[in-house]
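User: Could you go from structure to sequence for me? I need the amino acid at each position, not a summary. Structure tokens:
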């Protein structure tokens, strides 16, 4: 079961990154060119938050069923923090990615209350870009791309 969830989490991450990159650059480009905010922009922002939250749920399930979780009791918190790979999987990756999702969620929520297209695109651009940068910093690239 662990391997199935791990593969789902890994492959779903490609979708999350793709959609988040498209939504971020869409809002940056349309903000810069002063385009009108339309239904397609709303759907893209909504789809981004949906796939991101699904990834969070898959990640939480993966975290709970992970054999690495027992390392907390075996090594203690100090031992987990001393090993960079264990720290990445048990502390940094989950924590930073949850923070990234908070930024994405805040951006989506805040943009809905804005009245002008310019303000909507600016809000999405800022918050989605912060979330994207955070996500990109905590992906275990060497292992993830070796699937």
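Assistant: Here is the amino acid at each position, in order:
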């Amino acid at each position: 079961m662990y391997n199935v969830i791990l593969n789902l989490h890994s492959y779903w991450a490609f979708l999350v990154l793709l959609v988040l990159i498209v939504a971020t650059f869409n809002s940056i480009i349309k903000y810069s060119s002063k385009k009108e905010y339309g239904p397609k922009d709303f759907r893209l922002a909504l789809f981004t938050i949906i796939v991101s939250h699904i990834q969070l749920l898959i990640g939480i399930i993966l975290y709970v069923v992970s054999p690495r979780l027992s390392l907390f009791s075996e090594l203690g918190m100090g031992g987990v923090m001393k090993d960079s790979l264990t720290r990445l999987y048990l502390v940094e990756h989950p924590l930073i990615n949850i923070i990234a999702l908070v930024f994405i969620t805040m951006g989506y929520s805040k943009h809905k209350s804005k009245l002008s297209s310019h303000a909507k695109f600016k809000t999405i651009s800022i918050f989605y870009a912060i979330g994207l940068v955070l996500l990109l910093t905590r992906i275990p690239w060497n292992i993830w791309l070796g699937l």
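One structural detail worth keeping in mind: The CA atoms of residues 74 and 80 lie 9 Å apart.
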